[in-house]
Amino acid sequence: MDIATVQPNxxxxxxxxxxxxxPCVMVIFGAxxxxxxxxxxxxxxxxxxxxxxxxxxxxVGVARRPFSNDxxxxxxxxxxxxxxxxxxxxQAVWExxxxxxxxxxxxxxxPEGYESLVELLKQIDEERGTLGNHIFYLATxxxxxxxxxxxLSAAGLARRRRAxxxxxxxxxxxxxxxxxxxxxxxxxxxxxxxxxFSERQIYRIDHYLGKETVxxxxxxxxxxxxxxxxxxxxxxxxxxxxxxxxxxxxxxGDYYEEAGAMRDMVQNHMMQLLTLVGMEPPVNFxxxxxxxxxxxxxxxxxxxxxxEIAADTVRGQYxxxxxxxxxVKGYCEEKNxxxxxKTETFVALKLFIENWRWAGVPFYLRTGKRLAKRTTEIAIQxxxxxxxxxxxxxxxxxxPNVLSLRIQPNEGISLFFEAKVPGQEMHLxxxxxxxxxxxxxxxxxxxxxxRLLLECMLGDSTLFTRIDETEYSWTLVDSIExxxxxxxxxxxxxxxxxxxxxxxxxALIERDGRTWRRL
Length: 519
Ligand code: BG6
What we know:
Layout: H1 3-6, H2 10-14, E1 25-29, H3 34-49, E2 58-63, H4 69-83, H5 91-99, E3 101-105, H6 111-128, E4 134-138, H7 145-154, E5 171-175, H8 183-196, E6 202-204, H9 212-222, E7 236-244, H10 253-278, H11 287-299, H12 306-312, E8 313-318, E9 321-323, E10 326-328, E11 346-352, E12 362-368, E13 375-382, E14 402-408, E15 412-421, E16 427-436, H13 437-441, H14 448-458, H15 467-485, E17 494-495, H16 503-510
Parallel strand pairs: 1-2, 1-4, 2-3, 4-5, 5-6, 7-12, 8-17
Antiparallel strand pairs: 7-13, 8-11, 9-10, 11-12, 13-14, 14-15, 15-16
The structure holds 6-O-phosphono-beta-D-glucopyranose.
6-O-phosphono-beta-D-glucopyranose binds at residues 245, 264.
């Protein structure tokens, strides 16, 4: 027997192409909020438009405002008109989609509101044929997560005991970030959710995992033969991960004061990028196989000792200045920010993954708001070749090869290498071999939320964070936060908007004889 015909291609098995979505109802708590408006409703409409969603698909928006179904439909139309990737609205698709939109007015802690929600879901299941499949999306402030989970359970909507048997319809819950504020609160929140839902029913969102270019990290590494052999400490000198934004805190001062760049970006998005770059090949693309490998990476990062914190981490806060020729406020002048706030809006740090693949290879991470450019990039910088062959040719220093994965914008991948400048002399110059998503595929990638909502409907949690991933990244972040709390305020220097952060961040990497990539 030809083995190739019986063994599934693991890439294909995990990234099943034509998967079909069962009819279901998505119940969105926080239906009049910003996330629903900007992201969720446009994403659901795009899924309806591009047809992975069956016509029976329905949405129940739950919030406190006294809206009618028609008000909610109008809000949805406004959201789509303003934020959808595909515009103008397709009338025929909108007609079908909007018939499945319902509004349910309720306080999140009112038991009666949940009793009437049970009735409404029964009615929708019967009238629209949604088969008892229910997804609960918590787009509310995190303090409501345990309250809502508890009430859903009391109303019999969580169906925890039947979690392994979806034949009478499934119940799943999607939880937005932040998942806790530190390890202890994340564990406490998880305990509360677990009273109502099993781990298999919980989908913790990290929207970076829904980005097309982030998913492509695995394809690049494991769908090609040439990268994996050199993807290790023998060939890689260092890895730099940059997530830079030009925006400030955008009216989210109250949330950001509690979070800072470390909890807002490093604990979740940057750790996801790091684990995807650092992980071993999974045995297949099943949710647990992939996440087992990601967790191993996190387990191999030793929490930083207090004496390492001062050398290997840098914080900063943006001051007053200009971005793109426009004056911008300093962080401390932003709404709902304490005038003497010590919250960091910039973080740079150096980490090691202590395993056989990566021992001794520094991973430099930096993220910040109000930086020079909006860009997210992972750069794998390779060791320099010995340059004696080119001695005396003017090429006194060969540049290292760099493979850069541009996550956003200008999504693509570049390989930097040396080439001979045409002419009689032996002159070398660095050039780029470029792959650009836009020009290669000519299609616009779906929004991260589209992919993630669809995956949840399909019951595939590969692109969601498992509880142990959350635990290990909080353990690391907590060790840093604890040490930071003991440092003086002068440890948070201000930086000018439109720059690459405080000069201390340059010093962090220059001490190792390296520099940050100029992006
Ligand atoms: C969010 C953070 O999770 O990610 C924001 O809370 C940040 O502060 C945003 O701006 C960045 O996402 P993206 O997709 O624009 O890189």
